[in-house]
Amino acid sequence: MCNIRRTILKLSFIVNRVQQLLLLKKYKLNLIMQRDGDLNRTIWDPLQIFNCDKHYKYAVVILNSPLNWKNDSLLQIWKKAQINVTVDGGTYRWLRYLEEQGIDLLSGNHSEYVPHLITGDMDSCPSLILENLKRLGSMIIETPDQDHTDYTKALFQLGQYAKKENINLNAIYVFVDSSGRFDHIMGNINTLYKSDKLIGHIQVIQIASSSLTWILRPGLHHIVIPKILVQNNTWCGLLPIGAPVNSIVTTGLKWNLNNAALQFGALVSSSNTYDNCSEVTVNTDSPVVWTMGVEPLQKI
């Protein structure tokens, strides 16, 4: 009888131990899944651009397009950047913009506004300006390759410069307003799609005076929506440029997508807005362009 009892107790111990091991295995599996989920989640915060947090490392790139900024937001963003780049004709536009703010960069009295790096094929910027900026400390890198746009080449050179200077960037802010050239607009979007191959997994955001645009790679994205944009019913959109999106799920939009397919010639999510929410989530199986109006942010 005692032997039977000891056997039952032993079996009971073994069963309990197996159950504990199974629970531990399940717990570890859940942790792994949570970590994997966190690794596949990207957070985007538009206010970060205008708040200029000193702990957030970013670069500024000025392309050859109008700089339609009526206040000093652009100056503040520039001054707090770790790396500043002007691209070919964007160099001339930057000087003209500074002149409008009463700043004569070539006088040598405003070193904080001198670009760290100037790139491009240099067909849109006077050589005298380049010589003067080189004298003031700018590094000039001519990129004559006509198989790529100046914007594409600038991102690559920026990545090389950051690596050389041992600067780990969180984001790159590319200032580019529409110049009326649709081919330029699409060329800029094409560079966004290629950006991860050029500079790795750094957030690249195209900034216009009234909008922001970036690529959402496959995975889960959380986009922080400033309260003022929700209050003003500011527009936003999800555009499947280049290839269809087979499955996309959103929350926080007025017209959400529930396992929807996006494709030009069929459904695209343009002229959308927010459903009184401070966050939008997007889970997509394919790259998709996110674009949003931000004009009210300049009035904060």
Describe the structure.
The protein is of the alpha/beta class. The chain contains 8 helices and 15 strands. It has helices at residues 2-39, 47-51, 73-79, 89-100, 127-135, 150-164, 182-199, 227-231, and strands at 41-44, 58-62, 83-87, 117-120, 139-142, 171-175, 203-207, 211-216, 219-224, 236-239, 245-251, 260-262, 269-272, 279-284, 288-293. It has a 10-stranded mixed beta sheet with strand order 5-4-3-2-6-7-8-15-10-13, sandwiched between helices. A hairpin with a 3-residue loop joins strand 7 and strand 8 (211-216). Helix 6 (150-164) packs parallel to helix 7 (182-199). The chain is globular, with a radius of gyration of 25 Å.
Number of DSSP helical runs: 8
- What characteristic shape results from the CA principal axes? globular
Low-confidence stretches: 18-38
> Compute the gyration radius: what is it?
25 Å
Kindly estimate the percentage of residues that lie in beta strands according to DSSP: 15-25%
Helix content: 25-40%
- SSE succession: HEHEHEHEHEHEHEEEHEEEEEE
Secondary-structure class? alpha/beta
Give a quick summary of the entry:
The chain is an alpha/beta fold.
Helices and strands, with pairings:
Blueprint: H1 2-39, E1 41-44, H2 47-51, E2 58-62, H3 73-79, E3 83-87, H4 89-100, E4 117-120, H5 127-135, E5 139-142, H6 150-164, E6 171-175, H7 182-199, E7 203-207, E8 211-216, E9 219-224, H8 227-231, E10 236-239, E11 245-251, E12 260-262, E13 269-272, E14 279-284, E15 288-293
Parallel strand pairs: 1-9, 2-3, 2-6, 3-4, 4-5, 6-7
Antiparallel strand pairs: 7-8, 8-15, 9-14, 10-13, 10-15, 11-12, 11-14
Helix pairs in contact: 6-7
